[in-house]
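Dear colleague,

Thank you for sharing your sequence with our group. We've completed the structure prediction you requested, and as agreed, I am returning the results in plain text so they can be pasted directly into your records. Please verify that the sequence below matches your submission; if there's any discrepancy, let me know and we will rerun it promptly.
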Amino acid sequence: MTALELATVETELLSTPAGGIQRHIGEFWTAKQRQMHSLHYSNSYRASFKPELPNFFIQNFTNKGDVVADPFGGRGTTLLQAALTGRIGISNDANPLSERLAYPKVNPVTVQEIERRLCELDLSADIDFDAEEDMSMFYHADTFKELINLRNYLKNNRDDVDRFIEMTAISRLHGHSNGFFSAYSFPQISIPKSNQEKINQSRGVEPDYREIKSRILRKAKVSLKSGKIAELRKTGKQHLITTGDSRDLKDWKSESVDMVVTSPPFLSQVDYVQDNWIENWFCGITKDDLKDKIVQTPDLNIWKEFISDTLTELHRVLKKGGLVAMEVGEVKYQNMILNLDEILLSLTCSRQYNMKHFRTREIYVQSQNFTKLANCFNVANNKKGTNTNRIVLMEKI
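Please find the predicted structure tokens below.
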């Protein structure tokens, strides 16, 4: 079924120097939560899109065996959905944390393997607290000791079972229920230490002991409940996961990709370094490792140049006629609301940017009702913040 065959789709015509471009507005995938494979929900990740988004474009615009890629891979949503639908996935991100989250999803292991490995681990060794980061506002001392012992073990043990355990542990580092390792905190964002101290004070509590093995196993069972482990493992090594700049995808072969489904940073709406600082800490990723590698800018012209240079590199790796579905949103910029799909459209029509690289085929705007996550950020439907998925579908010329 194509987008235009769906009910409740409205279409408007945008005038550009290259001619009229249709923008379709409707509900192209369900607004319900957690409707796709359970591995998609293994980790919370700031500003990630729902798996229904890449699934829509993969199913409508590619065939089985095609190569589907994402230069801003995040938690590996496009990669996993490509694998689940019989495509070959490629994922890249400037933050090496992305590879830690994405690899285990396309190379999953069984609950039995995880349980056996956890039973073999001794996480009770004494540690030198003075040599470690002060995380006492998040973790009980005994929980922290287990966490450091696990982190030290994972530095030198990297088979697929270990990597799945690592990914699951990352998902449990902070949150708002007893299933997380931390005291009551926010699950989607690594909040600053001072903020956590204020939460503890307001709730009148100190971090209690949270044994980590049982919590890892419990979460792993939930992540793997949709099955398809054998099918994913069979094709897991076909996929490519890289770490680097989207403007220089040096490990991606020229003219090898059929479709890109991706979402770049929306100017400086999200701080990907600060918001993942606890995850980065656990993985041994320092601020120096990320310095100047993640583009987060409040300057629209710098953002346009960054996206333009990324599109130039995508033009190299795409096959002739290959497609890019780039998801952006609307942002507040200099006291006005910018629809970034219109900014992105202008890049494909401007001599300064990519006029001879891509042509915009159409734009999709997913209208949606927000769920509890958006409400946490005080986002009102279609009134405040980034409220819509706005996807510009471009074709390589």
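Summary note from our side: The two ends are 25 Å apart (CA to CA).

Kind regards,
the structure core
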